[in-house]
């Protein structure tokens, strides 16, 4: 079994700052980390490796500095790593990114067919949740999103059974391989790397692939292949209104609720009339 885990190096969201004049993200001095959502998928891939003996390849698209994230993944137990980097990839939106990553996955499949592609649910810098499904669509793989647990996998029948969180509860899904999986956050705990894996990660000769090597069409990557553009990033202005302390006649739930309702009606004088009108109309 061959598993590919797509990860992304992102700025630490806890330390992101917005330039006050240009309204762009200030990346200088902000540490880069593996997208936290990707770690849940990486851990699940490594668990499958422990269970069925799979080979795990980690793939990322980004600048040369993304090598650090790949080596981190190798130190946690991944077998191989590929850095997809090329100036022609710069400015790619989710459509172009999914195409570039798909081209790399197809290249990997030439030597070892890919059975499962893992992606994070979304990234903390983009929050689109579009790249994983985009890869699945281009590859023709089944999409298993928002997965909370992999119940069973059979190499003989090439089938996988998973639990998926939905608005109405939990769905149990069974499908054929190959497939694309996005793991939900909090579904597992990332392991600590072993010393042997850390040494191997430090010595590992990273595979660096360009657009030409993967065979991706130039018109479908970078700005040329990106129909969406982020025109502006800004910090919301702080509200001038301050929180008000509501005094209640007592500490019981009924007294607190009554005080809150009175405060709402006092702030919205027309609300009572609107509610009475709706009640009279039977709405």
UniProtKB/TrEMBL annotation:
Entry keyword set: Electron transport, Transport
Domain of life where this protein originates: Bacteria
One Pfam family in the UniProt entry: ETF
PROSITE patterns per UniProt: ETF_BETA (PS01065)
The keyword Zinc is annotated on this UniProt entry: no
Keyword Transferase in annotation: no
Chain ranges of the Electron transfer flavoprotein alpha/beta-subunit N-terminal domain: 22-218
GO molecular function: electron transfer activity
Similarity remark: Belongs to the ETF beta-subunit/FixA family.
Function in brief: May play a role in a redox process involved in nitrogen fixation.
Name the record gives this protein: Protein FixA
Lineage: Bacteria, Pseudomonadati, Pseudomonadota, Alphaproteobacteria, Rhodospirillales
């Amino acid at each position: 079994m061959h598993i590919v885990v797509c990860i992304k190096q992102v700025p630490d969201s806890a330390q992101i700052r917005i330039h006050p004049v240009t309204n762009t993200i200030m990346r200088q001095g902000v540490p880069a980390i593996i997208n936290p959502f990707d770690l849940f998928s990486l851990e699940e891939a490594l668990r499958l490796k422990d269970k069925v003996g799979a080979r795990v390849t980690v793939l990322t698209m980004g600048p040369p500095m993304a090598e650090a994230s790949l080596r981190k993944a190798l130190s946690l137990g991944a077998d191989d790593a590929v850095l997809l980097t090329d100036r022609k990839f710069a400015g790619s939106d989710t459509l172009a990114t999914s195409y570039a990553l798909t081209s790399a996955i197809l290249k990997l499949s030439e030597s070892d067919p890919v059975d499962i592609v893992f992606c994070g649910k979304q990234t903390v810098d983009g929050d689109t949740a579009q790249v994983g499904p985009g890869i699945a669509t281009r590859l023709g793989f089944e999409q298993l999103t928002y997965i909370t647990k992999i119940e069973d996998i059979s190499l003989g029948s090439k089938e996988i059974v998973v639990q998926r969180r939905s608005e109405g509860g939990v769905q149990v899904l069974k499908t054929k391989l190959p497939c694309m999986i996005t793991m939900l956050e909090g579904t597992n705990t990332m392991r600590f790397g072993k010393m042997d894996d850390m040494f191997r990660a430090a010595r590992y000769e990273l595979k660096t692939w360009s657009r030409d090597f993967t065979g991706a069409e130039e018109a479908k990557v970078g700005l040329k292949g990106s129909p969406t553009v982020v025109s502006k990033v800004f910090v919301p202005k702080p509200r001038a209104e301050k929180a008000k302390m509501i005094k209640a006649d007592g500490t019981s739930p009924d007294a607190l609720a009554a005080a809150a309702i009175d405060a709402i009606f006092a702030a919205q004088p027309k609300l009572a009339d609107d509610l009475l009108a709706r009640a009279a109309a039977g709405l």
